[in-house]
């Protein structure tokens, strides 16, 4: 069963938690208990394909889904039509202790595909299980990658409309083009004059607004979310941590039971939270390393115990991490405090009213046992892309480079020689201008458009352009909506003709 992080809602089954997206009264759904995977079960999964691992993990959390339903969802999501690599999430060794987990072989060239290729199938089933006859409206706030991955996953799914809000100046040109060219009769994309936090806060407010819920209800609509505030989006991310570990073990890179580190570039704290759930399920993890860019609100929080979003919002070359309000931290803190919903409600209220809150030292101590955190500056990110390419021939995107740099700082500080997996969250071609600038200098970009730069980056690195981006320039622009951050609610009402 699933409970609210603020102890303000009744227990619900998985399908209800996935259909609702977030707790109607405010708060997020989490599993009441975290299931364990035994050492014996891990042994049985050694050498298993991604789909088999996916079925095993999902079945532990989706008790109201039949085994054949889970199997069907997995088969529809993780296949060679959707993913360009037979391993789905392959590992690449860059030195004797360090491996890159490539999570970007899906249809939009970003790690969000790992969850958003299966989530529409889980949600469609959830709607049926709840015997809902309303049309579902999915609201998405995106810092770049979730938007396209959600649009691609939900386009033309019967009974669903999807509306995506993104910060107009806050995503890469390629990310923006991917969203604006999306097909489907049920897709809507809106550029917002504001930053990602403005988009996310507006969407969360709408979820908690009784008046708009009643108006939607009267018109035959109900809301859901494809952001990682929805458990159905977070859950599939747990799978690839098991897959990465089992692949290392199967390839003889680690011994049975040997612990590994995971480095996760993160802004909204969903991806690293999925790794923490894997750890609590029994995956042998030594340390989780939280990597931030110059919007280092998480780094500061883990180092001081004070979460403070009252700071300058920076637009960086790793825009998917340009976030100052990390929604999934609420779930993590609920777990760390032993499910103290009152305390969580208090902290979240402080965050909303004053922009900050502080946690007690006992919780900080608990967190530091498993989690380390640091950040990379813009110049460090560029230098890391260049250094890794020159040393190994491997091309990092800007977000993965943040992860590599933070990992290098961690090793310098701790001398920890544990084998380490670094999440690679996007294809380098998604952030082509920044990656090419890192490799060849600013002048190489002059006079070139996005598609010239894609070709040049392919030529310099010897890597083929990701299929999702190859013919982007030939796609017609289908979405031109734009609004001020104050008018997001009005935009939804206009789209739905309320």
Could you characterize what this model shows?
This protein has 22 helices and 15 strands. It is α/β, with parallel strands linked by helices and 498 residues long. It has a domain at 86-110 and 232-470: Rossmann fold, CATH 3.40.50. Strands 3-4-14-9-10-13 form a six-stranded mixed β-sheet, with helices on both faces. Helix 8 links the parallel strand 6 (160-167) and strand 7. The protein starts with a strand and ends with a helix.
**Average residue-wise pLDDT:** 96
Please tell me the CATH architecture of the domain at 86-110 and 232-470 by its name.
Answer: 3-Layer(aba) Sandwich
Give the strand order, joined by hyphens, for the main sheet.
3-4-14-9-10-13
Q: Which residues form runs of ≥5 with pLDDT under 50?
A: none
Please estimate the helix content.
40-55%
- Rg (CA only): 21 Å
Structural class: alpha/beta
Query: How many beta strands in the DSSP annotation?
Result: 15
């Amino acid at each position: 069963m699933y409970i609210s992080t603020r102890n303000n809602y009744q227990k619900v089954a998985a399908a209800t938690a996935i259909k609702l997206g977030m707790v109607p009264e405010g708060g997020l759904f989490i599993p009441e208990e975290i299931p364990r995977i035994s050492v014996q079960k891990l042994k049985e999964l050694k050498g298993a394909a991604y789909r088999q691992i996916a079925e095993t993990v999902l079945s532990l959390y989706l008790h109201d889904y039949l085994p054949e339903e889970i199997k069907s969802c997995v088969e529809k999501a993780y296949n060679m039509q959707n993913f360009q690599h037979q391993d789905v999430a392959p590992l690449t060794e860059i030195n004797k202790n360090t491996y890159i987990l490539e999570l970007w072989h899906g249809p939009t060239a970003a790690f969000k595909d790992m969850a958003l290729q299966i989530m529409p199938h889980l949600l469609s089933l959830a709607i049926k299980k709840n015997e809902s006859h309303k049309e579902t409206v999915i609201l998405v706030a995106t810092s770049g990658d979730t938007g396209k991955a959600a649009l691609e996953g939900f386009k033309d799914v019967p009974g669903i409309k999807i509306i995506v809000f993104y910060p107009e100046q806050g995503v890469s040109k390629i990310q923006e083009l991917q969203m604006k060219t999306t097909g489907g009769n049920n897709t809507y994309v809106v550029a917002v004059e504001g930053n990602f936090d403005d988009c996310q806060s507006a969407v969360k407010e709408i979820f908690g607004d009784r008046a708009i819920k009643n108006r939607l209800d009267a018109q035959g609509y109900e809301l859901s979310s494809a952001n990682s505030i929805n458990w159905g989006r977070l859950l599939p991310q747990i799978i690839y941590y098991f897959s990465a570990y089992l692949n290392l073990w199967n390839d003889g890179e680690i011994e049975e039971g040997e612990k590994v580190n995971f480095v996760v570039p993160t802004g909204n704290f969903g991806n690293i939270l999925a790794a923490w759930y894997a750890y609590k399920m029994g995956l042998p993890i030594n340390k989780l390393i939280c990597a931030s860019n110059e919007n280092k609100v998480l780094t500061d929080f883990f180092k001081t115990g004070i979460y403070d979003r009252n700071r300058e919002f920076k637009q960086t070359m790793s825009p998917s991490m340009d976030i100052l309000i990390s929604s999934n931290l609420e779930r993590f803190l609920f777990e760390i405090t032993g499910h103290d919903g009152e305390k969580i409600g208090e902290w979240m209220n402080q965050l909303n009213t004053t922009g900050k809150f502080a946690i007690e030292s006992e919780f900080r101590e608990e967190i530091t046992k498993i989690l380390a955190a640091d950040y990379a500056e813009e110049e460090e990110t560029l230098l890391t892309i260049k250094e890794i390419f020159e040393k190994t021939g491997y091309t990092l995107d800007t977000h993965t480079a943040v992860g590599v740099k933070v990992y290098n700082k961690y090793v310098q500080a701790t001398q920890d020689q544990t084998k380490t997996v670094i999440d690679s969250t996007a294809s380098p071609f998604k952030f082509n201008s920044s990656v090419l600038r890192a490799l060849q200098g600013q002048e190489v970009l002059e006079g070139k458009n996005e598609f010239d730069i894609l070709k040049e980056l392919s030529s310099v690195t010897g890597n083929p352009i990701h299929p999702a981006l190859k013919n982007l320039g030939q796609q017609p622009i289908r979405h031109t909506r734009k609004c001020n951050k104050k008018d997001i609610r009005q935009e939804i009402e206009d789209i739905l003709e309320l």
